[in-house]
Amino acid sequence: AMALCLKQVFNKDKTFRPRKKFEPGTQRFELYKKAQASLKSGLDLKAVVQLPPGESINDWIAVHVVDFFNRINLIYGTMSEYCTEKSCPIMSGGLKYEYRWQDDSKYKKPTKLSAPQYMCMLMDWIEMLINNEDIFPTRIGVPFPKQFQQVCTKILTRLFRVFVHVYIHHFDSIINMGAEAHVNTCYKHFYYFIKEFSLVDHRELEPLVRMPQGRGG
């Protein structure tokens, strides 16, 4: 399964394109458009992440979790040829931080994986959650489950680790590809969002603590 999984990761035509779409005509689609419009308007990112008046916080979080998943998935997709079993045999953020994978099915205990394996498990796990109607309901009037924000915290915490790994281990590649401004903007947006709603434990943020603005900016 892992070999197949990795084959999919590196077959860029098949993966690394936004996989979850918001249905036009739904409230969440309108929210998504509103969020994108304020993002493009050049507003301060701290203002962009704030909950618009009268909107539901869970809807706002849902829209952002899906959008960040799509965008970070694409960022990692463009980097993935530099992140190999050989270059990154463990999923780490520098010498001090190592991330182990755990889920409720295959890996019941925290398990050491290479960075590409970890990323593959992570993207599949998030995709499974956001496509699960019991967790991310898309039908109007269907309430969010009680544990919705806890699930989002777990998703966002793990997505933050993608930034940690990419910034610390692949920053040269980001610069060589001319993607620095794009990655920094995405990181800043993500960072201000999780801070605004206290969605990720501050200890998780420590590996990048000196760069809330993104590297080099």
Task: Please give a quick description of this structure.
This protein is an all-alpha fold. Helix content is 52%, strand content 2%. The protein is globular and about 50 Å long.
Cα distance, first to last residue? 40 Å
Q: Helix tally?
A: 7
Q: Summarize the biggest pleated sheet.
A: 2 strands, antiparallel
Number of domains: 1
Level-1 CATH class name: Mainly Alpha
Mean pLDDT: 84
CATH superfamily: MOB kinase activator
Low-confidence stretches: 1-18
What's the helical proportion of residues? Answer: 40-55%
Portion of residues in beta strands equals under 5%
**Rg, Cα atoms, Å:** 17 Å
Shape: globular
- Report the order of strands and helices: HHHHEEHHH
CATH topology: Butyryl-CoA Dehydrogenase, subunit A, domain 3
Structural class: mainly alpha
- The neighbouring-strand order within the major sheet is 1-2
Second CATH tier, the architecture: Up-down Bundle
Protein name: MOB3C kinase
InterPro entries: MOB_kinase_act_fam, MOB_kinase_act_sf
Keywords: Kinase, Metal-binding, Transferase, Zinc
Pfam families: Mob1_phocein
